[in-house]
User: What shape does this take?
Amino acid sequence: MYGWMGKILRVDLTSGVCTTEDMDPDAARNYIGGRGLGIYLLCREGDPKTDPLAPENPMIMATGPLTGTGAPTGARYMVMTKSPLTGAVTCSNSGGMFPTIFKKTGFDAVVFTGKATSPVYLWIDQGEAKLRDASHLWGKNTHDTTDLLLLETDEKARVACIGPAGEKQVLFASIMNDKHRAAGRSGVGAVMGSKNLKAVVVRGKERIALADQDRFKAFNKTILDTFKEGIKEAPLGLTVNGTAGVVMATQNFGVLPTKNWQQGTFDGWEKIHGEELTRKYLKKNSSCFSCPIGCGRLTRVDDPKYGGEGEGPEYETLYAMGSNCMIDNLAAIVKANYLCNELGMDTITMGATIACAMELVDKGYLSEEAVGRPLNWGDADALVELTQMTGMREGFGDQLAQGSYRLADSCGHPELAPVSKKQEFPGYEPRGSQAMGLAYATSPIGGSHMRGDPAYFELFAVPKAMDPHVWEGKAKVTKAFQDLSAIIDSAGLCIFFAVRNLAAKDLGVAPTGILEYLNAATGTDYTLEELMAAGERIINMERLFLAQAGFTRKDDSLPDRLTQTPAPTGPAKGMVCHLDEMLEEYYEAQGWTKDGIPEKAVIEKLGLNNLFKG
Amino acid sequence: MRIHVTLYSDLKSFAPDGSGRFALNLPTGATLQDALILIALPEKRAITTLINGKRAFPESLLKAGDTLVLFPEICGG
Assistant: This one.
């Protein structure tokens, strides 16, 4: 095969046996790779009703056909499994160098099943895979684990691992690769920990063969030349301030979630936004493999209390741990971000859960005795201390480790959790960004903006501007972006480059550039219609997984705070999110029933009959 | 009429004193497009434009006392 390596590694952790199977060419064509291949394998191997932390829940790591090819931002891999945070499917993705080197071992994907009797790590050296003892690594953070594994394998190897949070099955534990990059969301690290799998270490040099090298190179040149022309006058905002630069935008639109989502503006925003991060703490930009943007931030804080060095924070972290907690101490946010990376936790859920705890205390639903310390809005020390305690499941951290929904529910006030499907939202307030509300509610993984990101057309005018306060007409565009995101995630690309540079410049966002890359790399000769159908197939397959797991329309929801309580401040003052109205249009655009289940005609059109084993 | 303008990031260099915040005098009935011409932003530059926190388009009308915010193309994640 071209583009694809043509092999899938299977690791049965219970027996310790590693086997190889050939990639099914039809599956490759229909599901592309990455997220699509992941959901295909998950449906084939797993049971949607399984306990996510049971050995029966498979965990899949999958690259895409463009990963490692040299296509711009072709550096991603996906982790697919059933999430312990949400009970839904999850697809958590990451970049860096690990995914490319993983693919160069000769495998497109690895499927983990079962559970090891004691801690192990997987060592893939070229095409050879074996499980090794990891007892000496258990309890170590992600940085120490990575350093030790490089010492005992090869300094040029690449590592993806969990920290103490994953071992202790914090429900939002991440898998960290290359130390600083995170498959962050939905607790994929907890699933890895439940399997006693500490790390995956890869060393590979296999060539990724392309079907038509000349065609690929010529197209690559055209795309990169156009990109370079576009940044001639000024560098991309993403390059200058990273995603942290978005704080300024969301504050000005009045959609910067603040005080546990009570409002969309934060008086202290200028102290936590990207320009301040760049000015005070940026050492240099960092890039994933083959990325012309370089949005990563290598930062260093020289501060007796909050000192450290690492990567980040991203915008989402600045909202979750900053405005959402009313914290304007940037050094403390950076420190808590470092801790999350080292302990192996998702910064969004961590920050949002602490903010939720702050409101529970503020309203008298949670006592300071239960927390073990005062917990006031804006308390930077509490942010850092509670983050550490959560990663180690110490004291009140053991409750925070369950995420905001379970915490708020245990206090009798689940309505205070900023979640959809029990997963915390990223940093865009749906009362002032209507389609974002729809995207959160219908994302297969729960609160997420990366499964079709309306911020592009509502806030950033890409490819065209839509009024973020208007809900009418948003359903079809949101669906188009969701389909596009499924294709980007499956091809192995990054949304930051692909939406702007590899899709049509209208709100239909057809994946025209991705089509050319895929055809040149794989020789598949997809038509545009076929590729767009693949995006729909992936979305619908995820939806069918959710239906089997017991999710219904009532789970496509937002907290009443966003749909019933008018925004109190900023440009969106007086507005609510019109989710119900958008959902009607959205289900119709998808060809789903009024309860959000794919209609028979859609299932047949996309060839999704008889999905699940048994 | 007089409006307030705030420019962010590298767009600050288009402000008279480089600070990013300044007042702009415009004729009554001026549009966003008129303001952009006065500020002398390159036509091809991709920017996001807000009037009083609401998405603005080239034909959007300005009125005295409005706050116009301009920032370069960015995205989050």
Notes: The longest strand of chain A covers residues 197-203. Chain A has a mean pLDDT of 97.
